[in-house]
Amino acid sequence: MVKRAAAVALTHSRQDYVKALYDLDAGEPVSVSTLARHLEISPPSVTNMLARLDEEKLVTLHHRGAARLTHEGQREALRVVRRHRILEAFLVRVLGLDWSEVHEDAEVLEHHVSDRVLDAIDQLMEHPSEDPHGHLIPDRLGRLPRRVLLPIADLAAGRRAVVREIHDRDARRMQRWKKAGLVPGAQVRMHAVHDDGEVFEVEIEGKRMVTGTATLEGVFVEASDPGVQR
Fold it and tell me: How confident is the model at residue 6, as a pLDDT?
């Protein structure tokens, strides 16, 4: 049995892979093509790295090389996720940077800040539970509370919800959400759904807007009343 020594830290590349697999996991193995697009790396390079991660027991390979994290791989991924989200919170809360622009900065810093400095940053901010985009921050043991969220476009007409998370990889889309008020904590109500779910009338903090699926994709809410799914 091949087993990676626990004392050996993952390389930056391996950290990127396990975090990406964690982010992309939707309950089934992540395909090579999906992972390649996410990481902006060629499919052959992804296939080669996944084979190494499989040997190191960080992933299991499935049909056509699709991969899922093992228990150990998920543990390592949560360590990187914790670093990334704490650093995003630091960049916004302490340094005052715009929350729509800190994702890439945190991507760089997460590989270079020591555990000691990260712990000091976490303590300085009194242990934040969420990053600026609403994502929960794992604790030091990798524990992450579960909550039931759904895409805002899945709200049935007449239902209310609270925005909890927004995807953080596209700064331009985040700027549009910020302008519209679709930010974590915002109270929303779905007034109507038209054209077979392609056009939506949404009230955001008392202001109504009409928009399409593309604008709402990436915004996740927690229903504040029952019967939320269409």
Answer: 43
CATH level 2 (architecture), domain 80-145: Orthogonal Bundle (1.10)
Among residues 158, 155, 167, 160, which one has the least CA distance to residue 131? 167
Fold of the domain spanning 12-69 = Arc Repressor Mutant, subunit A (1.10.10)
Q: Using N-to-C axis directions, what is the helix angle for 12-24 and 43-55, rounded to 10°?
A: 100
Please name every residue paired with 59 in a beta bridge, in sequence order, or none if there are none.
Answer: 69
Q: Which two tokens stand for residue 187?
A: 């109270």
- 12-69 and 80-145 agree in CATH topology: yes
Map out the domains of the chain as residue ranges: 12-69, 80-145, 150-223
The fold for domain 150-223 equals: SH3 type barrels. (2.30.30)
Side-chain half-sphere of 79: how many Cα atoms within 13 Å?
18
What pLDDT shows up at residue 5? Answer: 41
Q: Supply angle C-alpha 24, 221, 138, rounded to 5.
A: 55
Query: In the block, which residue shows the tokens 């056509």?
Result: 64
170 pLDDT tier (thresholds 50, 70, 90)? confident
Q: Which of 221, 229, 136 is nearest to 186 (CA)?
A: 221
The CA distance from 128 to 121, in Å, is 10
Among candidate residues 153, 184, 149, 115, the one with its CA nearest the CA of residue 26: 149
Nearest to 20 by CA among 33, 7, 1, 5: 33
Which two three-digit tokens encode residue 159? 């239902």
| pLDDT (0 to 100) of residue 26 | 85
